[in-house]
Amino acid sequence: MSTDNPDPERPVDEPDRASPPRTPGETPPGVDPFAGAAPVGFDPTQPPGPAAYASVLELRFDEPRRPGRAVATVLGVVLAVAALGVPLGLLWAVLAPDTPVLKTAEGAIYAEPQPEQPIAADGWFSLLGLAFGLLVALALWFVLRRRRGPVGLLAAVLGSLAAAPVAWQVGRRIGLATFDRLLATAPAGQAFSKPADLRAGGVDWLLGVLPVPHGNLLLPAFGAAVTYTLLAGWSRWPGLRPEPEPGEFSWVSAGTPTPQVAPEPPAPDAAEPPRG
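User: That's the sequence. What structure does it adopt?
Assistant: Structure tokens below.
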């Protein structure tokens, strides 16, 4: 092939002879099929669509988690959920019945031989605690979408575990001051009531500094753990976080080569461009 004969199939000594016909779709020899080709559907007059931001979306979706941010998220959620133990305790104090007692010379005794009110107080706390843990798990599942997984589960469990003692202490102190005053000043034989308290749960102190809840104080954390685990098991997304529907965004990195279209080959009977 020489500079005067750009077509390698045309003999040099026969410059005017037509090139042999090519089958449709065949690329001429020596021509790069991808040279100067534009991506499929590319329109330079239109603004960049969602696919133009594919690499940015992929980095945001799969960016590595920073341990500091994860710890801060867990601590913030634990404090917020623990504060919700206050209204939970107030609700428990309203629903749980007081226990009738009778003042004697030795102190207060139950006014009935086998009162049912203490059992009802434990039952109400257990039911409210399970419901509280379920709601906490649901709320964190939808609010902390980008933290779904171990971080969200840990935040839900620790937050519910911290809220249970708060609810217990708030609920049992409603009317406790009045009970202590009557217990100290009421004459023997006077009947009054004792506010709700737990018999099947409490807090033990490990080494005198670390509180360890036990009994039905663990039920809110149990409900949160079971609910969050079921939500993760039933999630339709492998990464637990919402992914775009087909046709909305392309999650393929922009660095991946985009398939290009080869130029249309000339028709067998088309006129050839002038040669310089």
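The two ends are 15 Å apart (CA to CA).
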